[in-house]
Amino acid sequence: MRLLFLFFVFINIISHEILCGEVISGHAEERTWNRFDMNLWTFDAKSDSYIFHKNIEIYEDKSLGVKGILFNYIKNIKYLPVKVYKKFPNMVGYSAYNCSIQEIRYENFENLKELQCLDIQYNEISSIPSDTFKDLTKLKYLFLGTNLLKTIDENIFKPLKNLRTLNFFKNQIKLVPENALSSLTQLQNISFHGNAVENLNDLHFKNNNNLEWIWLSENKFGILSSTMFDHMANLKYVDLRDNLCMNKHYYSSGFPEMKEKIKTYCRAL
């Protein structure tokens, strides 16, 4: 039997602005990029709210007008509710920023087919099942930064064909599967700053022709391909600071220099 999701205190359903993913890379100068600002009729949890168990549903009347959920900065939320679509089927924004979330799975986002923005940064998520995002076909912004992720399943992003921004900075990822990003043909911004990735080659970004901003700083890159950015006609910025073989960031005017330094210092594949 499913438990009901019940708060100790009153829940506001109000018009609220969702700021989804205010920080992409963690660097202060990039704070203004890729904010998803929407004035939404929002299910807004109070600070004394709590969820300590899995399989908990929202105890609230169904509303077609609610377009967002806010659980931000609530440390007593360890799990997200399931079957949210039964109550709020038209959600476009979901933010559970800086809680204590330990895991996410398919049932947390099931049938949320209108969702465009998901922000679950600053939590305690260590792994994500491959089917977690399979219904989120309209998702444009996904923020997974500052969790405890060690691996990325190569199929996890396949349904996200409309994704524009992907952020998983400051996790513990060592290996990015070569095909993990292959379905993200609309991707414009990606950050895995602050992980432990050691190498990237031409296959990692082979289908990401629309990338504009790439943050790869504070990893352990010793091997990079000097040609892996060549097909990105719209590329504006690449951050390679604080790596083993590179320690600089480049705007488009510096890309020729970047390519030569990768050839020289990163044992290009």
Automatic annotation (TrEMBL):
What is one cellular component GO term in this UniProt entry? extracellular matrix
Q: Which Pfam families match?
A: LRR_8 (PF13855)
Keywords, ordered alphabetically: Leucine-rich repeat, Repeat, Signal
Q: Which domain of life is it from?
A: Eukaryota
**SUPFAM superfamilies documented for this protein:** L domain-like
Q: Which residues form the signal peptide?
A: 1-20
Q: Provide the protein name.
A: Leucine-rich repeat protein
